[in-house]
Amino acid sequence: MLRGKRILLGITGGIAAYKAAGLARELTTRGAEVRVIMTRAATEFIGPPTLQALSGHPVLCEGGTPPAGGDGMDHIAAARWCDALLVAPATADFLAELAHGLAGNVLSTTCLALEHRPLLLAPAMNRAMWQHPATRSNVRLLADRGARLLGPASGLQACGEEGPGRMLEPAELITALEQTFAPGRLTGRRLLVSAGPTHEPIDPVRYLGNRSSGRMGYAVAAAAAEAGARVTLVSGPVALSPPPGVPRLLVETARQMHQAVLAQAPDHDIFIAAAAVADFGLDPVPTTKHKGSVLRLELARTPDVLVSVAELAEHRPYLVGFAAETEQLRERAVAKRQAKGLDMIVANQVGHDQGFGDVETRLLVLWEGGGVQLQQAPKPEQARRLLALVAEHYDTDTHTAAHH
To answer: What secondary structure letter does DSSP report for 287?
Structure first.
């Protein structure tokens, strides 16, 4: 997958910078053309001559001699040259700089100049730094903009502490790069995704809602497009931009979500229902703002989107539902899959310091006769893992059905 690919390897100033030497060597062994950009801090951990010898090209770094050849290889030229940019290690400082659009060094300016090419970031830092709210916010921003976060792993760290923050090993980063260039598992498939919450009005100015951020559904839509699918996104109210090239239908209420999905579902091969659709709403909704010290509401059941799609007599898509539970995760997910007639269900625990809007998530994916636990990872990475499972089981199930 990497033969002939042009990989730009960015290195920042962390102790894990020593691993970049093995990474550069392995990339070239696999046939990739590698060029290296280093921050000034990175050169204090590993010397540019080492990376030049391993990559076969001069290294671009602060204060260094511009590479020979007359092509400039400055931040614009580098961004245009590469097929993908991998920053390994990506320190907390660099993630913050990139998240806020700062251009303080040649590597950050190259990242800002990158257009229509994958940006992969391999974080490496102390566990407390990784878990700090500022870092979590920066990672969330970067993921929302399309950067792919690879890791970090958990384990013993250079500081002597143990926890999340270790950079992935070169072999793991190579695998991620190969996946980036692999032919899409869902090429030619039509995939419908619902995402976000619904808002159920209780008068012209107030509504009932939930804490869904839409991040998981949007990550699924992005991963599906990345895998070659033709994606349609039906979204409740969120503060997110749609993935590039993915048409989006905006809705507000559960009834609107139901109507939009039912209109689209028969034209799609797969429906992944990641939206957190309200179970109850007012019908009818008062036309005037409520006044008074007491508010009593009589709520009615909203239409069940999943059941309605599962009951389609013709052109029923392969159906993947989500279940957010506070307890008895597996038991309730199994019951929901069976009750709603789903092909697959994705369950996640909420509450207990886990919830909607988190940067990372742990998922339990279940299907008839099996399942798998997807360990904690950033939502964009979890979306890719989930789509790989969906593609595998969709191919298997449709092949089996075709022979009965």
So the answer is: S
| Residue 286, pLDDT score | 85
- Using CA atoms, how far apart are residues 176 and 166, in angstroms rounded to an integer? 16
Looking at the annotation, which residues are catalytic? 159
Q: How far apart are CA 199 and CA 187, in angstroms?
A: 34
pLDDT value at position 64?
Answer: 52
Classify residue 328 by its DSSP letter: -
* Res. 285 pLDDT band, cuts 50 70 90: confident
Lowest mean pLDDT among 16-30, 127-141, 172-186, 332-346: 172-186
From CA 300, how far away is CA 302, in angstroms rounded?
Answer: 6
- Which of 38-42, 68-72, 358-362 reaches the highest mean pLDDT? 38-42
Pick from 19, 64, 56: which is nearest to 39 by CA?
64
pTM, rounded to two decimals: 0.67
Q: Which domains does the chain have, with CATH numbers?
A: 6-181 (3.40.50.1950), 190-402 (3.40.50.10300)
Helix 106-113 with 92-99: angle, nearest 10 deg: 40
Half-sphere exposure of 171 (CA within 13 A, CB side): 0
CB 141 within 8 A of CB 135: no
3-state secondary structure of 30: coil
The angle formed by the CA atoms of residues 207, 208 and 211, to the nearest 5 degrees, is: 120
pLDDT of 70 higher than 50: no
* Phi, psi (deg, nearest 5) at residue 41: -65, -35
Burial per residue of 212-238, b for 16 or more beta-carbon CB atoms within 10 angstroms, e otherwise: bbbbbbbbbbbbbbbbbbbbbbbbbbb
**String of DSSP letters for 226-253:** HTT-EEEEEE-S-S-PPPTT--EEE--S
Find the Cα–Cα–Cα–Cα dihedral 173, 176, 182, 184, rounded to 10°: -170
Tokens linked to 61: 């770094």
Here the tokens at position 249 are 């239908």
